[in-house]
Amino acid sequence: MGVTKIVEIPVVTTEVPVGPQHPALHEPLLLKVYAEGEEVVKVEVNTGYNHRGIEKLCERNTFYRDIFVVGRVCGICNAVHANCYVRALEQLLDLHPNKRAQYLRVLAMELERVHSHMLINAVMAEIVGFETLFMQIMLDRERVMKAKEILTGGRVLADYMMVGGVRRDIDEEKRQRIRELLLKLKPRVEYYRKVFEEDETIVKRLEGVGRISYSEATSHSLVGPTARGSGVKIDSRVSDKYDAYGEIPFNLVTRSEGDSWARMMVRWDEALESIEMNIYILEHLPSDGNPVPDERRLPRRFPPGEAYTRVEAQRGELTYYVMSDGKGQNPYRVKIRTPSFNNIINSAFMYIGYSLADVPVMLTSLDPCISCMERVTVIDLEKNTRYRLDLKQLAGGKL
How many structural domains are present in the chain? Predict the structure, then answer.
């Protein structure tokens, strides 16, 4: 009788680069995925491919010019960036916009929330293979883009926020046109929500994939729909009640599943909440004066001081720190912390134990915005000097 010899095959760990250019990524980001067979055992997040020096650019321009600079940090959430920065300037100047301006600010930001959430859900549909669904969602997204154009004058870059108010008011005709567009959009968003909830393929690809528990979301400082999909009740609109958020009724959306499907469903529910909020704004818009301040009467010089503001951007809590030394027309320091910085850098643990094929789905469920998070100033503390790095040095981490 022969003896059966068992030969152990050594486990080989393979490094699979996802990015910086990849069909699943719409911006440059490198995930170094280490897999044993098809199972992911480790992920390293590498950024630095899209640095534009936004913070330094803000320090070299005037307080008022910087409103246009910060509005270009991200094309999808430009109004919320501008709003957060403008409110920091208003803190320094002790200025307060009137109620009509506050309501219009919220209207612009919630229109952006709808089109951002529709965009990332369309991208998710494309990632799982539903190209037709992707195109249908993007087609209906045009309605909210048109509404934003009617309000601000721009489909994408709004340049709508200004110190003391907003740059454009709306009349009765524009108010009715925006309302009609939202009323037509609402049943379409409800339909897409139902598709994501009931379609067998979508549910199988997303449900149970990339699960993040409540404790993991809080311990890793995750924010926005990513955290709310794990049951964390975190929303700057609720806690800070900035602008008119303390007067406009809306529900804080959370889910307890904590997986990729829950994060996408939170976005669909938030889009519906934003539509209802905007309809409420249009029907209850205050008429307490002109929301557009006279730009010529705004102060040219800012007093010394510091301001820290935050806003609930589409991906979560966005914060701005602005410092004035009182000596000139430029800010001494502008520091931006975006929600994607938290969600992308701190979520490498999420991929462990899942299949390689699930990596694009999990990354998309975080709604990554790489252009938002690429900011750095390198300082040599010993010599008290600042470095200038070329792209290769910055990408390679060679300081």
Answer: 1
